[in-house]
Amino acid sequence: MIETDIIIIGAGPVGLFTVFEAGLVKLKCHLIDSLPQPGGQLAEIYPKKPIYDIPGYPEVLAGDLIDNLMEQCAPFKPGFTLGESAATIDETDDDQFIVTTNKGTQHKAPVVMIAGGLGVFQPRKPPVERLEDFEDKGVEYIIRDPEFYQGKKVVVAGGGDSALDWSIYLVENNITTELSLVHRRSSFRGHLDSVQKVMDLADKGKINLITEAEVVGLKGNDTLESVHIKHNDGSEIWKDTDHFVPLFGLKPELGPIADWGLEIEKNAIKVDTTDYSTNRPGIYAIGDINEYQGKLKLILCGFHEGTIAVQSAFARIHPDKKNVLKYTTVNGVNGFE
Amino acid sequence: MADNMITVHIIDREGITHDLEAPTDMNMNIMEVCKAYELPVEGRCGGMAMCATCQCYLESETDLPEQSDAELDMLDEAFFVKPNSRLGCQIHISDEIDGIVLRLAPEGN
């Protein structure tokens, strides 16, 4: 069991800055994030996009902002549980919380701050008939272990880099017996060398390239047996396959947090703006995931919210201590040993 | 109507047409106008052409600027795409699009 003062769910910019603010009042933080790296959407979705409304930075790339925040909070030695998403929250008899991830990792702390942004990144599911009937029975949205497809017929759908790269990998390593790549258009917008490789493999008959077409339905008894492919010209085929792997990137969803007994409004968590606390004492929500009158989904507002919430968390953790605001210009930043 | 206002016609997912007045001097786009009028447009990425929750179909002869690579990249990966698909966040509110007719694409992107 990982024990800390504040469990922060979400390692985006707001979660990271909150580590710094908590550190100033000597509270230790541990962050949980479903993505494999810190930074949230800034690192995952738009690291090369410039941001213009961070105070003091006329322009900063999203990825650079995350690097700077990591450096800023480093003295306070945050812990990270990455690649796992917070699944359940339980309260103990001594007013602590236990947050357990989807992989079973447990974290214990007196305070939880949800800085989950737009939610947990989950695979985008295409509108295909009976798709959910065959999840884990031939339909996978993520390739975890390529060897899983050894000796199988596989249909991959999508036109981006992951669809291209996995198709190439499965074929070049002689894993699949048959690989079809289905894409809605005739051209691909992925990296040029990946596109060229797919075209070459298609010319050699190693990838069955089905373009200007979409998978629209699935068929099978207990497990997947064939996919229904519709061409843009209206013609249709059923193709026998063992697996269908749609690779259309990720999208954020509120996920299990929606079932934590928190007041939800507009797909976000309602908070009291005096300290950004939720309706459950000890649980706070900061950044894009919260909602209140006048809410603005801006990184800079999230920084403010985290800062205020930390003061309230301090009072909860140390009810007998008085906290006095100290300026970093006076005291500097005294990191943890 | 004031000089700086145009009308855009948005057909929602129930087929109802909403005639919306939109200002040309606020640097707005179609996604933002829809949200301002509380039409069911999510605009999850905030207007960076990085989700397709503001996808709509152009149903008028309005002459729109050529689509950017970012928009084409996103539409390439989006669902429910048709030849007249556009991302609402990439359509700037200007005098040139006065009277535009757009139909909201289904949810699920």
Describe what is shown at a glance.
Chain A has 337 residues and is of the alpha/beta class. Chain A has helices at 13-24, 40-44, 62-73, 161-172, 192-203, 299-317, 328-331, and strands at 2-3, 6-9, 29-33, 50-51, 60-61, 79-82, 86-91, 97-101, 106-109, 111-114, 120-123, 153-157, 178-183, 207-211, 213-220, 224-231, 236-240, 243-246, 250-253, 264-265, 268-270, 283-285, 290-291. Helices cover 23% and strands 29% of the residues of chain A.
Widest sheet, order of strands of chain A? 6-3-2-10-22
Count the E strands of chain B.
5
Instruction: Name the CATH homologous superfamily of chain B.
Output: Beta-grasp domain
Mean pLDDT of chain B: 94
User: What is the third-level CATH name, the topology of chain B?
Assistant: Ubiquitin-like (UB roll)
Protein chain pair with the most extensive contact, residues per chain: A-B, 18 and 16 residues
Element order, helices and strands of chain A?
EEHEHEEHEEEEEEEHEHEEEEEEEEEEHH
Low-pLDDT windows of residues of chain A:
none
- Specify the CATH homologous superfamily of the largest domain in chain A: FAD/NAD(P)-binding domain
> What overall geometry of chain A do the principal axes of the alpha carbons give?
elongated
The description of the largest β-sheet of chain B is: 5 strands, mixed
Strand content of chain B: 15-25%
Helices of chain B, by number, come to 2
Oligomer: heterodimer
Helix and strand content put the structural class of chain B at: alpha+beta
Q: Which strand order spans the largest sheet of chain B, edge to edge or round the barrel?
A: 2-1-5-3-4
Mean pLDDT across residues of chain A = 95
Q: Structural class from helices and strands of chain A? A: alpha/beta
Q: What is the CATH domain class of the largest domain in chain A? A: Alpha Beta
Helix fraction of chain A by DSSP (H/I, runs of at least 4): 10-25%
Radius of gyration of chain A, whole Å = 24 Å
